[in-house]
Amino acid sequence: MKFQVLLATVFAVVFCSIVVSATTEIEQAKTSALSISQSSYAAFEDQKRSLRSSKMAEVGNEKTEERGAWKWVKVRYWLEAEKSDEHVRKALKLNGMDEATMKFQKNYKYYEYFAKKSLEYRIGRWLGKDMTTWNVWKELGLHTKITKRDDIDSIAHTPEFKIYSRYVNDFDHNMIQTVKVGYNVPSLIISRGASDAEMYARVKIMAIAQRENKYAQMLLGMTDPWKRRTTLLDKKALREHDDYPWYQLFKILKKQGQAEKAAV
């Protein structure tokens, strides 16, 4: 009888242990499942937020790109419409700023492109009309600033003179290429009545560019008008030409430039 009581007691203890263990495992499983569920939910929410942020960033980038593209369209329009520098600066909210200040503005790249292309367009139009260097000098208003060669240093660093210098080089290059392919140069390649300052500047720019003598003579208009204006004058006809002194000055300045270059 005592043995049976002992056996029943042991059985009860073991049964209780099993029940407690099972209950604990169930509770742990519930806790783990809840933890996993909360973690998954948090990850899901993070992913949603990330996607929303990504979409917002993409929309922002698209709007920025659209605004940028539209500004480039405006720049092309301003160029075609020949809008003034002042108009473009105002449109880009850069008016009243100097060059150094403008460079730190987000719209500066549009103005910089406009300024560069505007100059190219302007020079291109002059070249298309075969405008003489004297006419461009006047177009730039340089004739109102100086008339004598001794005053050139006072305008040498101005934007207008730099544009003039570029035009002289582009004009000369075009005329030389025209002759090389066998075509005639314009009948009026150099204007009569140009000021001393303009002619000196024109000749000096040719000398700096080290133009060949035959092309310098042609560019100064010392050619036979009855022979397609590509046949150079020589001897007496050359010496008697009105612009012969300028041709002589060109050769002197060219030689000086060569000597200075050799001495460096």
TrEMBL record:
Coiled coil (UniProt feature): none
InterPro entries listed in its UniProt record: RXLR
UniProt keywords, alphabetically: Secreted, Signal
Signal peptide segment: 1-22
Localization per Swiss-Prot or TrEMBL: Secreted
Record keyword Secreted present: yes
Record keyword Secreted present: yes
Primary site of residence: secreted
A Pfam family of this chain: RXLR
UniProt similarity note: Belongs to the RxLR effector family.
Function: Effector that suppresses plant defense responses during pathogen infection.
Domain notes: The RxLR-dEER motif acts to carry the protein into the host cell cytoplasm through binding to cell surface phosphatidylinositol-3-phosphate.
Name this polypeptide is given: RxLR effector protein
Organism name: Phytophthora megakarya
Lineage: Eukaryota, Sar, Stramenopiles, Oomycota, Peronosporomycetes
